[in-house]
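Design review, sub-item: ligand-bound model
Attendees: FS, YL, KQ
YL presented the inputs for the 6-phosphogluconic acid complex:
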Amino acid sequence: MSAAEIGLIGLGTMGAMLALNIADNGFTVAVHNRTAARIPEFLDKAGDLADRITGHADIQDFVQGLATPRNIILMVPAGDAVDAQIDMLRPLLDADDMIIDAGNANFHDSQRRAQAAEDAGVPFLGIGVSGGAEGARFGPSIMGGGTPAAWDRVAHILKAISAKYEDQPCATYMGAGGAGHFVKTVHNGIEYADMQLIAEAYGVMRDGMGMDAAACGAVFDRWNDGPLQSYLIEISGKVSAATDPETGQPVLDVILDRAGQKGTGRWTAIEAQMLGAPVPTIEAAVMARNMSAARDLRLSGSDILGETGRTLDDGALSLEDLEQALIAGKVLCYAQGFDLLSKASADYGWDLPMAEIAEVWREGCIIRSAMLNDMASALTDAPTRNLALAPFFAGILRDNLAGLRKVAVVAMGAGHPVPALAAALNYFDTLTSARTTANMLQAQRDYFGAHSFERIDRDGAHHGPWLNQHLNG
Ligand code: 6PG
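KQ shared the predicted structure:
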């Protein structure tokens, strides 16, 4: 085979699937893996696609097997491993050869790597890739960050391998430096929130309404035919219906209630705090994962303080209430995510293509859902307007808010934790407060720190009458 059109390093699940996808789309691809034994195993399983793939145990051979200027995708674990790989690879490359980091990088790392590449006069691209293993194999959603020239160089390959929404590729250039990985991070923050909202609805059905896993699954299946239609609702139906082959019980019932996380949801919450962007539903989802992980504490809590979460009275909540709660919660958590993107875009000078972000998430990624097409339209009309205020979504919120309020109030009244639903409701109630209680905060700040406050009746910075009194004794 002549020199390969693109290279890929890292044959873990995601890397292997991406390499197969690239070959499947007619491109020739050279692959390398640190543990060389993985390479022949991978080629064996590649079937006919192996005709378009070359495996190289030796990194120099790998580099020599690539057409110039070279384009090399890294699919290695995010963090130090990426830096180590770049440090090892770069000296073997020519100045116009490009490294493409396709892992779940922290965008600060991508900013730093992009800057280092620019200083060294070499191209670099950071791409967020969403869709899990299946997406990587058959069409992920791809969010690119770097120089436009770096993106243009490989855009034809990335668009070809990406998911398609009505023939439109879900692969888009987002902006300079770490913009692609930032957008991917916020995608994951929304993913955490959407998953947690669904888990809370499941909890109300299971613990409040006494429904078994199969019954919950049937509800998710039904919801998937309505406004909630989405990949996450679809898989919630599937996992609820599955049976554990060992015990014959529903799989859900044998899974320990301790959630893992690799950190992207947490990064979203951290970055939102740094930018002063309110994302309470995402933060609640991260908190809920952290508390799920503190299982020993929860066991002691239920032991010492008594378990809460009693069965709801018949008719206290309906499945329609729950569906409404999820619809409103979902709109509000996406609104928070897009608001964060908009603030980051201004702060980092990225000029993020807001409507195209919604478009690129319509297929391939984990948060793909029917609502994203309408979000793309709303963001086309007004890219920086909070989605909750767009006429279409304001209408959805008006129609479904009663359900969210009822579910949050009834569930909390019976002692069921619904942190993400409650956070969504509080976000809505704050968003619609023409007058908050921050006048009290301002008075307190001025009292103890002479921080001053604005007045409602005239401009300027003012102090309260307390200042001289309490400082002068
Ligand atoms: C995706 C997923 C993917 C992955 C993350 C989140 O878009 O394909 O977000 O990136 O599932 O690693 O996983 P955690 O839940 O472990 O943080």
